[in-house]
Amino acid sequence: MSRILVCYYSRTGYTEQVAGKLARLLGADLMCIRERRPRTGIGGYLRSAWEALQGRDADILPPDTCLKDYELVVLGTPVWAGHAASPVRTLARQQRDQIRHAGIFCTLGGSGQVAALADLAQDLHQTPWSTLALTDGEIEVEGYEEKLTSFVAALRSRLNAEPAGRAGILGVDHGRTQFDPACLAPQAQPPAAERCRR
Ligand SMILES: Cc1cc2nc3c(=O)[nH]c(=O)nc-3n(C[C@H](O)[C@H](O)[C@H](O)COP(=O)(O)O)c2cc1C
């Protein structure tokens, strides 16, 4: 089993594509957040936007893997109405005590990444080791290798500085702090088929 889990929700496949690449680069396990009810059609779109705007929880299925077995959980979300997607927020809220350290990435049409990344950091009650935002345009042309590589390098260097298993065994404080959105600023400037079987 890997020390890293990449955990994502994807309605139309962009986040899934990035999650898959990340998992390969990190040598991580991969987990898709599943829901009881599909989000297809205009109804699914509107419900998604409404839940995101209201900060409502989604009806997700229990994760099929134990998150506390991992040293690092990388969460991936699409941006919905300027926020993180409700299924990912729900997972973060439900599992935050199981998540020792986190990285966060989001995919988006063009705006809302800072608030979406901050949503998840706040839901997790911890400052992520690193963050990444990628636009659909970048993903479509596969023009994000450099950003992906530096995200992976940042996560790896933090992980390498962390003795394996130490946090879980000694029960130490994992450095959970109040999240400062300013830490997202350097990565907050991206240029302007339903895959997750539920
Ligand atoms: C309900 C809904 C709201 C969205 N709101 C935004 C938004 O506020 N800003 C933005 O840049 N993109 C927005 N998007 C576009 C998605 O963030 C973008 O297409 C993302 O890559 C989709 O990821 P997915 O294919 O993994 O579901 C929205 C999409 C949906 C379905």
UniProtKB/TrEMBL annotation:
Residues 3-139 form the Flavodoxin-like domain. Gene3D superfamilies: 3.40.50.360. The keyword Flavoprotein applies. Keywords: Flavoprotein, FMN. GO terms for molecular function: FMN binding. InterPro entries: Flavodoxin/NO_synth (IPR008254), Flavoprotein-like_sf (IPR029039). This is Flavodoxin.
